[in-house]
Amino acid sequence: MDVSGGRGQPRPGNDESADHTGPEAQAPGGAGDAPTTLSAPTPADDTDGRPEGPTPGPDAPAPEGRTPQDTGAAADHDAHGPGHGRPEGPTPGPDAPAPEGRTPQDTGAAADHDAHGPGHDRHRTPAHTEPPVDRPSHAPAGRPEHPGHSFAHSGSGKGQPPERPEERKRGGLLMGRPFGVPVYVAPSWFLVAVLITWVFGGQIDRVLPELGAASYLVSLFFAVAFYASVLVHELAHTLAALRFKLPVRRIQLQFFGGVSEIEKEAETPGREFVLAFVGPLLSLVLAGLFYLGLLAVEPSSVPGVLLAGLMVSNLIVAVFNLLPGLPLDGGRMLRAVVWAITGKPMTGTVAAAWVGRALAICVLIGLPLLTQSGALGSDAVDNVGMDTVLDALLAAILAAIIWTGAGNSLRMARLREHLPELRARTLTRRAVPVENDTPLSEALRRANAAGARALVVVDAEGRPFSLVREAAIVGVPEHRRPWVPVGTLAQDITEGMRVSAELAGEELLDALRSAPATEYLVVEETGEIYGVLSAADVERAFVKAMARPS
Known about the structure:
Layout: H1 74-78, H2 109-112, E1 121-126, E2 173-176, E3 183-185, H3 187-207, H4 214-243, E4 248-254, E5 257-262, H5 269-295, H6 302-321, H7 329-342, H8 345-373, H9 386-418, H10 424-427, E6 431-435, H11 440-450, E7 454-458, E8 464-468, H12 470-474, E9 490-492, E10 498-500, H13 505-514, E11 519-523, E12 529-534, H14 535-547
Transmembrane segments: 179-201, 213-236, 273-294, 306-328, 349-369, 389-406
Membrane topology: Multi-pass membrane protein
GO molecular function: peptidase activity
């Protein structure tokens, strides 16, 4: 692929023709009679492997830029097409407004849908699960297609990147930042606190009837103390992750326990095992401490009832999370063992995920049977009553969480397997360098002549300092383009908007997350301009990676 150097000259050793470089490759003619749109790539251009496509008409809207995390709607819009590795599609209609664009960081609900970038690991207590990931599965394999894609896909015509998800208030009520990691309480926690208060309050009232209504205050204190112990469990995961230099996005306390959102996968199976085991280990330690405290008080007193309840609940959390199936801690431990034996993390994930699905079926069927038979300490019942229905409902919820979490673990593992296919060098668009006062019509003519789909504004020395935004281009009427300098449509290049052409996979996504933008200047290690990377191109490739079978 031909890319311009610092002054728009072809790089030495480039196997492309010089007519694909920049201003020097222009055809004769003045700005006033220059073409106002860009032509589709010629067959000769198909050898460079870059995403290219037809250019919309003069007043066509800029396609909405999306991000690697905004994959839900992206599949239906982007994952169809010829599949030959080149963006193709119809030209948008005239006179449509340019929509606001998004960046690889504008994840919307995907977070939390996925909220979570592709590399996130989640440790949950007591049932460590992943939220459903509504990823498309029908997109064809191959490079990202670009239906209706214009020459320099950008976003907002205002040139202001959207706010990063981390900067938005999400995840619930912020309770603090132990070790620099934000801890949130989700709204669903208040629902489970009410349920615990109601159920445990009735039990306390039977043991200590003299308390009366105060038994529910004691029960509320138990609910808060129990979730405090869940927080300790999650902090154990967090401290282990930080010890292994793995970033932790946040801790969230929610309906069925807690989750530590670890943004990267452990590098070795040994670290993965330790990272998973420390949570249940801390829960066992807490259960032991509460047992020792119970020995020092009267069992039928308020402190005795509280300590007994906390001992049993932490023991249940530890044992449940040690069950060998994803997404539980025990499943991650099993994954680490299989990974260590086979040397393949994907094999470990598949094994632990299928064990997790089998575990979900066992919970769905076995938990109500054990409860009804009295094996869990309650009286055996022969008829179906409200308690039996509640037990079955609880079992169904737990089974659904485990099954869904196991499936999401498989999808995330498949995505990590395909992430290396996201390469800045193959996703970058060919760019033409132009000076600040170049008329827009002349710049577009040069881009057409060079087969390029992006404009980089350079100074007199050939150094790039801004990128011309596509949304701004399509917002200029055709008859005014000969009198509009490209510098008025450009966005300054910040340090984070320069990315190396060698970046790929998670490193590429991390670089884009660290500096939200709709376009990035891609440079060689020598500092030469390689081209322009659009966030929308990365997002489409991300969708394809999710949809492609392993």
